[in-house]
Every structure is written in structure tokens, then in C-alpha cells.
Amino acid sequence: MNENNHLVIMAGGVGSRFWPMSRPDNPKQFIDVLGVGQTLLQLTVSRFGAAFSPDHIWVVTSEQYKNKVHEQLPEIPEDNILLEPCMRNTAPCIAYVAWKICNRYPDATIVVSPSDHFVVDGEMFRATIEQGLNFVRGTSRVLTLGMKPTRPDTGYGYIQQGENVDGSFSKVNAFKEKPVLEVAKQYLSEGGYYWNAGIFMWDAAVAKEAIRTFEPEIAAVMDKMEPSFYTENEQSVVGECFPQCKNISIDYAVMERLGGKEATILGRPSSVYVLPADFGWSDLGTWGSLYTQIEKDDASNAIIGRGKVKMIESNGCMVCASGNVRMVLQGLENYIVAEDNGTLLICKKDQEQRIKEFSSDK
Amino acid sequence: MNENNHLVIMAGGVGSRFWPMSRPDNPKQFIDVLGVGQTLLQLTVSRFGAAFSPDHIWVVTSEQYKNKVHEQLPEIPEDNILLEPCMRNTAPCIAYVAWKICNRYPDATIVVSPSDHFVVDGEMFRATIEQGLNFVRGTSRVLTLGMKPTRPDTGYGYIQQGENVDGSFSKVNAFKEKPVLEVAKQYLSEGGYYWNAGIFMWDAAVAKEAIRTFEPEIAAVMDKMEPSFYTENEQSVVGECFPQCKNISIDYAVMERLGGKEATILGRPSSVYVLPADFGWSDLGTWGSLYTQIEKDDASNAIIGRGKVKMIESNGCMVCASGNVRMVLQGLENYIVAEDNGTLLICKKDQEQRIKEFSSDK
Fold it and tell me: What's A177's DSSP letter?
């Protein structure tokens, strides 16, 4: 791959819908959710393959997770682990890393990726990423990946495809919020809608300029922080300035404002594009989204974790048996059974959107 | 109570149908099944109240459980804890303790009780036991308690009542094996059938003579063991002789042979009698039998153990959450959910007779 390519991994989330496996003190990106011997964060880095050298891989996370990132990705320089002193959603987070990369690598092209997603076909994934990076490099284009939807999922945002521009690539017509079921069904029957996977690519300089255009206050905070980058003062300056940023997602701040429009960034035409992809993807946002992606037994049960599980007259279940747990499950149909460290959740699979309620102490 | 009364508790069982809480290395009589701060064995001793002095309480168990018994019942003299070197069912077990008690207390009247049953009304229980001991004392009668059946349970043996002899007491017409459901239903509609609780009373000398009459080989083994009783050789002699006993239950060996007949024991008329009782009883043989006996919430869920359990849209469930476990259960109807020390069982309540199959490693 091109030596200007940089990978940015966002690893600050708390994964509350994946309870009880994922908890604020150990969210799912740091867990071997699939029981394969690698955490989701490690799988994410592996998935991008050898194309990015370790000093071109950047992780943005919370201060409290610094040690976890360092332990799980020892090959990444400490300077490349960016610590948010507080949660300000994805726009300030991406601004910080874009400013920092651009400071040292002004010609960088970056791909931004969540740390806790799941991809089935790694080879196709890498080819798609390379195709995307080549599409944006040296331009003012912003590219987002659109996952071909396989069901009317109401847990994802959708991207409406517009004019085709270059074979695989189309302009984005609009970003759509998580829809209700009827609307999601309509999207699928109409066609031209894709799941927003939160993976996007742009040149670092374009990212900076787009943020400066749409969120000048965030840009001002970054400009104030920039002189401290790569110095021993960085963390204290960031600790002082970063919390002044407003809490806004990169989707609201930039993508939705630029999507479906024509703008000029760095003197060049700019818009948001979508590259439809079909490498098998789940945001692992919920147990059900994991269920759809992994191998099932003859009775359509998906079982993960290192525990010993015996299924009897059970089908359609998503089972997670962590550690040394032993489970015998009889007569369960379409349930989630998830155990982690002494906490057990059993609920119907179609009720998983209520897991936050289930996990509350009330 | 009469100073000749002795209590014999049989505590050698393995409780396999109460898996995963009960396991061979820690069967249910040694567990605080109900989460009340006392094990079933301790509850059993407490239930008999202050009527038996500690040196008149005897426990028969396996060698491997000696320390558990001693720890849980420190007030009982070590001489009163009888250790079976191997499992030979209840006839040799009761023979051993009858011989041993009679050796020192020839006028003893004994009540034999399982160690792992559950009784709702302790006061009524104690009154029933006293009434029963008075009925057999100084006679050759054998008395068994018959529990008034509340449902056509197929997990219990039944006692068919015969001729009434003395107000509450009747002769036993026959002992019936665990019936199939149709037969159990017939018993209930006919009336005069009681669950066999395995609690019976007789004079120690009568017990000895009855065993000698029906199982002379077992009696011969006991006679050979007797000179060692209360000496330091006892355990080694028992270890040598006891395994020669045939494997047979006291029901087969004595009760069924004496029930419904007239015999002469120690020169006096002998038969088996039944005293119907209604103090609320369960053998805790299965989760379902426990479920029927304990308090339920508004949605008919019975929850035991020290764990923290949150039930959502669930009803009719028997839940056991041991230790520090936390459970959130949604959308479950009529299930058993039992967790103990890292092992979880979920099965439909009406499938609990298959728990041995469920718990096997196959």
C-alpha cells in the first residue's frame, strides 16, 4: 500500500448493549468476544493486515483504557495512542487525530475505523480499503463504506446512494438515522440504501479543513492544542483544552452537512461518496448482530466463548459462555444466553434492544 | 420426649437430580439449598428440635463425607457418626445403626429420617414424630409416615392405607413403586394413598429382629461387626465386613415384606403402619419438588440462593442463584434456571426427570 496511508482506530466506546460481557471497566473492544484468542481491537488491527506499519497506526481512546491498548497492541508507539480526557463523541476525537497526524505527516491519507466491529471476509475487506484509499488520495473527497443490507435492521444508520461517479463509487444522496422497521423495509425494497459502518477515508488535510469549515470552534481548540503535540506537555494541554469541544458526532458535524451537496475544500470540489461493500460485516453492537454473522450449529445455535456448552432441544439461540463456565441448555428457542464473570443474561433475541434496561440495577 | 428416643439421619446420598447445585463431591444435604444460612442436614437436625440430646442423634454417611458432617454438626459425638465404607443402599445402613444403638441402648426407639428433605410446618412435624414414637415404643410395630399427596407425582413411591387401627394410625396395605402418571392420578382419585417420605419409626430391637428375619445374611455381617463397636477397631472391621452386605433398600428388605401382612417379631404381633401427615413436605429430590414448596413471587417464580436475580416477563420459574451470581432473566416461562459454581442448567420444568441425562458429559 501507499506509504502515506494511515489507520485510525477509535477505541473509546463502552459497548453497553453487549452486556454482560461488555462493561464500562472492560468494554467489548478489549475482549476476546469470539473466543478466538484475540480481542476485537487486536482483530481490527490484524484485519488491516501488514499494509500499515505500526507507526502509521493510531488509536484514540479514553485515558482509562490506555494500559489496555498498550498491552494489547505493544507494537504501536505510545505517541500513537491518543487519550481523550473525556467523552466528546467522534468529531472532536477525529479532529484530534487528524490534526496530530497532519502535523507530522501532511500528505497522510487516513482510514478511520471502529475498534469493535466484525468482518467475515478479511481479504475482500483489505481490497475494499485499498480501493477506497486510492479513490480519496490527493483529492478533497470523503469516502464512506456502505454495507449491503441483508435485513431491515433498525439498529443501523443508512446511507442513500446518489449518482454513480466511477464504477464502484457513488455520491451520497443522504444519511438516514436509524429507521423504524417499516422504513427499513422500504429502504430494502427500494434498493440503493446501505448500512453506515462508520468506516471512512479522506486525506488528513481534508479532514482538518472540513472540520474547520463546519465546526470552527472545534478547529480552534485543535489549533490551540497543536503546539504541544509530540511533546511531554501534550497530555496536560489536551486535558485542559479538549473538554472545551462540543459533544458532536462526525456524522452530524461533517458527513451529513457535506453529503448530497457540492462544496469546495482546499480549493477542490468536495463531496461524500459511498463505496458499497459486501465482505460480511457486523458492528457487534448487539448480541443479535453477532448472531447473524457467525457459524451456527445444525439447530441454528451460535455459540461463542471458551465455556463448555451442551444444547438440548434448543434452537436459534445466541450463547456466550465465557471462561470456565459449563452450561446445559434445554428447550430454549431464539434466546440470548450470555454469561460473563458471574453475571448471566437470558432474554428473548427479539428483545435485545432492551438490554440497557435489563442491565440496570432497578 | 422420652429419654429412650433416638434420631437416625441418613446422609450418604449424592442427590444427582439436583444438579448442578448437588454433586457427588458436595451433595445437597451439605448445601444451604434454600439460602437460609443452614444446610439441609443442619435444618434436618434443627427440625427435630431439642427433643433429642446430641448423644442420641446418629448420622450414617459415607467415609468421604465424615468431615462435612462433623463440621456441620459439631455437637454430635464422633462415635455417633457412622461411616459406610461403600454404598449398599439403606438396608445395611439401617442395620448398622440399629445394631450399634441397640448395643448401648437396648431400649431405644428410633426414628429414621433422610437428611435432605424439606418440611414446611416444623411444629406439626415434631408433634407427628412424637405421636409416632409413642405408637411404636415397646411394641413390635413398624410405623411409616404417609404424606397426603397434593398432586399425582410420579417421582414418589406410594403407601396404600389399610385397616384403621387407632384413630390416626392405619395398617399399610401395600407399598407401591413410583407410578406412571395415569396410575398416580388413579391413586389420588381413589384416595387412601400417601407419599412414602422414607421416615419410619421402630424400636431398635425390633429393627434388628426384622432384619434378621428377612435378611439373615445382613444380620450375620452385623453380628460379626458388633464386637468392634465403640472401639478403635470399629472402622477397620466395618471396612472389612460391611461391603459383604447385599445392596438392598430397607423398603425391599423389610417394609414391603412386612407391609399388609401379620408377622411375629420378638414374640409380639408385628406389621407396618402408616400415620398420615400433612405438615408440608418435599423430598427435594428435584427442582420441581422444591418449587412446589417454597414461596413464589407475583409471577409464580420461586427464587433461592444468595445471588441477585432480576425477573422480567418471566413466570413459573424455579431459579437458583448461588454465591455472588447476578442473573437477569427475561421472557422465560416454566423453566428451571440453576447455577452453581460456574455450572448453569436451564431446562423446562416438565423435563426435570431428565436432569441426569442433561448433566452427563455426553
Answer: P
